Amino acid sequence: MSTFVLRYFPIKWRAEVVRFLLLASDASFTEEKPAWPEARAQQPVGQLPVLVERDAGDGTEFLLSDSVAIERYLADKYGWLATGGARVTARECQLRNQIEDLYHLMIVHIYGHEAGRPDVQARFDRMARGFVEYHEGVLAENGSNGHYFGGSLTWMDVALYTLLLLVRRPYERQIPGVAGYFGEDKAPGLNKVFETVHGDPLSAGYRATLVES
Known about the structure:
By secondary structure, this protein is α+β, with helices and mostly antiparallel strands. The chain folds into two domains: 3-78, Glutaredoxin, CATH 3.40.30; 85-200, Glutathione S-transferase Yfyf (Class Pi), Chain A, domain 2 (Up-down Bundle), CATH 1.20.1050.10. The protein has seven helices and four strands; from the N terminus they run βαβββαααααα. Helix 1 (16-24) runs parallel beside helix 2, helix 1 (16-24) packs across helix 5 and helix 3 (86-111) packs antiparallel against helix 4 (117-141). The protein is globular and about 50 Å long.
């Protein structure tokens, strides 16, 4: 049996899918918020989040960094990956990485230089519009049933859910009108995924963390 330690900053951003998967999978884990930048040198490539898995039998540790890599590892370990062969796996990774592209621009806008924000906003506008159009098509191909793949929750459903939570959360210097790109009028399929995940009993543990915050 494994136990986990999730290391991340005291914010809700890149570790949310990881936290959701751990809670929904009833995994045994604790969280650490390392002092930064003092603890940078102790993390793989000096970045967070980091997942530490400890084997209860022999005490060995497995350290993994990069949020998407951690997500996929846990999704594989606990049965959250879509099934259907190599093409389904490739599509799943493609869709998840497209969310990461949006995250990158949001972070650059929030933490980057003021002078560069108009360009970042223009790039986000193009990317978000393309994202919505493409993902709405993928969801329609799956029957517009509130899931990206099949008829039950998978890693990609959870990733989309946390994206919409993030864009709806107010941040100082957030891209103006960011939530509007993903509104019900423009993205009904995405919003159906959100409601499906939010209403699933498996999300109860994670939803409790939203109340706490």
